Amino acid sequence: MKTGGIALLLVLVALALAVPLLAEQAEAGRDLDQDEARQLMLDGRIRPLSELMARHPVRLEGHLLDVELELEDGLLVYEIEVLGADGVVREFYLDAATGQVVKEEIED
């Protein structure tokens, strides 16, 4: 095989290895729009946000600042940002299918 052929083969192998990694990174932290969210709910893949928030009344008590449906590491999660009575902004990540809290953070 000539040098040009080997170089082309190496480039093709590198691309074949890189494409799946790039696809995973593109999906990480991707916000879903309202049409996608509605279809996921109709398909039974996620629960309505109001239902899941009702399961955590104390944790989510306060002023609701923001909610997003995201794909995080292959898991559909609701990212919920709440300003508590103590003045602290907290972010909660709820599994959109089960309502389980998967992560909780305090905003700076």
Give me a quick take on this structure.
With 108 residues, the chain is α+β, with helices and mostly antiparallel strands.
How would you sum up this structure, described in words?
By secondary structure, the chain is α+β, with helices and mostly antiparallel strands. It has 2 domains: 1-30; 32-106, Nuclear Transport Factor 2, Chain: A (Roll), CATH 3.10.450.40. Helix content is 37%, strand content 31%. The chain has a 5-stranded antiparallel beta sheet, with no helix packed on it. The radius of gyration is 20 Å and the shape is globular.
Q: What is the CA–CA distance across the termini?
A: 58 Å
Strands ordered across the widest β-sheet: 1-2-3-4-5
Average pLDDT taken over every residue: 83
State which percent range the strand residues make up: 25-35%
Number of domains: 2
The best one-word shape is globular
Looking at the overall shape, the CATH architecture of the largest domain is Roll
Estimated structural class = alpha+beta
Number of helices: 3
Sequence stretches where pLDDT stays below 50 over 5 or more residues: 18-27
CATH class of the largest domain: Alpha Beta
The amount of helix comes to: 25-40%
CATH T-level fold name of the largest domain: Nuclear Transport Factor 2, Chain: A
Radius of gyration: 20 Å
In total, the number of strands is 5
Taking the sheet with the most strands, its summary is:
5 strands, antiparallel
- In N-to-C order, the SSE pattern is HEHHEEEE
